[in-house]
Amino acid sequence: MQDVKPAHDEMYCSSCGSVIKSAAEICVHCGVRVAQPGTQSTGFTYSEKSRVLAGILGIVLGAIGVHRFYLGNIGIGILQIIVTMITFGIGSLWGFIEGIIIISGGKWRDGEGLPLKPHGMQ
Description:
By secondary structure, this protein is mainly alpha-helical. The chain folds into 2 domains: 1-44, no CATH class; 46-122, no CATH class. It has helices spanning 51-61, 66-71, 74-86, 92-103; strands at 10-12, 19-21. Strands 1-2 form a two-stranded antiparallel sheet. A hairpin with a 6-residue loop joins strand 1 (10-12) and strand 2. Helix 1 (51-61) packs antiparallel against helix 4. The longest helix has 13 residues, at 74-86. The protein is elongated and about 50 Å long.
């Protein structure tokens, strides 16, 4: 996936974070209504959690769900610990793969449902 920055007539989707036309009413990537007809989009609040840190935590400590705890998904973090213990470590691949997905720009949300900022977005 390539880092894409919006042009002057584009914006980030308020739901999935994909780059879409500013005049769009519905995101072509996720189908969510991003602006009411005849109104200007007011933007969207992204999570304050770091995508890079969450990804690195997933890659390095994903076996014990540290990236999930960081993002506020406590229940899934506990489940990752249990799966890793029951499978004698094989379940640690779950967290490792999630870390790669997060850091590579996958659509990811924190525990409050806010999407992580896309790469290159300040």
